Amino acid sequence: MMYTNVIGYQIPNLSLPKAKKTNLNRYGRMRLDYLEQNEPNLCDQMMLEGTLLPSCRKMGLDAQQMVDKTLHDLMQKAQMPDRKTNPLGWAQMCNSLKQQAEEMILPMLYEV
Fold first, then answer.
1. How far apart are the first and last CA of the chain?
2. CA nearest to 72, candidates 52, 45, 44, 100
3. What domain range is 82 assigned to?
4. Cβ-contact 45, 68 below 8 angstroms
5. pTM (2 d.p.)
6. Residue 51 falls within a domain, yes or no?
7. Using the 8-state DSSP alphabet, how is residue 20 labeled?
């Protein structure tokens, strides 16, 4: 590590690595918010290493795939109303099942 001498003090030359612009989905942003609020030291360390955003992006994509798979499995098991004759009941059931799938996946985002 390189240091700069400023009025007798050795100050490290810190710089963040060049990072690509990364789009985070909902779950990636939730993971990032959790790390910033509850694990600031880990968040800072990962940011300096350049692994924070790629890690959150991967976690978000994995969580989205798990929600989609869980939702598909729940829809196969549930007695879904007919979409053509009862569209509101069908939408209500889909929203309920999606909420259940997310509740099953969210604890994964808060593991360190």
1. 28
2. 100
3. 22-109
4. no
5. 0.77
6. yes
7. -
CA dist 92 and 65 (Å) reads 22
- Give domain status of residue 9, yes or no: no
Residue with tokens 């979409």: 83
Whether the Cβ atoms of residue 83 and residue 90 lie closer than 8 Å to each other: yes
Radius of gyration of the chain (CA): 21
- 4-43 pLDDT tens trace: 989 999 988 877 667 677 799 999 999 999 999 999 999 9
Quote the distance between the C-alpha of residue 10 and its chain's center.
38
Evaluate whether residue 74 is within a structural domain.
yes
**Cα–Cα distance, 14 to 52 (Å, whole number):** 17
Which ranges constitute the DSSP H helices of the chain? Answer: 26-38, 40-49, 52-77, 87-109
pLDDT value of residue 16:
67
